[in-house]
Amino acid sequence: MSCGDPHETDCSEVLDHLYEYLDSEMPPLDRDKFQHHFAECSPCLEKYGLEEAVKKLVKRCCGHDDVPSDLRAKVLGRLDLIRTGQAVPEHDVTAEPQES
Any idea where the Putative zinc-finger domain is (predicted)? Predict the structure, then answer.
């Protein structure tokens, strides 16, 4: 997604790292760049607002459960595949292999 306007920080970069921004997992300088981008790019600001709302909803509904670290790693790995545009298998990659 892009608004079509030139920005100091490209829309694709902002959207590729949106969850790092939402989770405060980026350096302050990068956070400042993103905040500046959101101030001038309403489509990215809208996407940020939507993702922030989803994150809050998930936290409210599921925030009391501890997530096993191996499941978290598998989910993050799958998200990385999606972000980089690699093919994501249709089957459940988090499931244990079944023996024949």
Answer: 11-44
Those residues whose C-beta lies under 8 Å from the C-beta of residue 40, and which sit 6 or more positions away, are: 5, 7
Q: Let me know: does 44 contact 77? Beta carbons within 8 Å.
A: no
Looking at the predicted structure, is the pLDDT value of residue 65 above 80?
Answer: no
Residue with tokens 């949106």: 18
With H, G, I as helix, E, B as strand and everything else as coil, classify residue 19: helix
Confidence of residue 30 (pLDDT cuts 50, 70, 90): very high
CA dihedral 36, 29, 12, 83 (to 10 degrees): -140
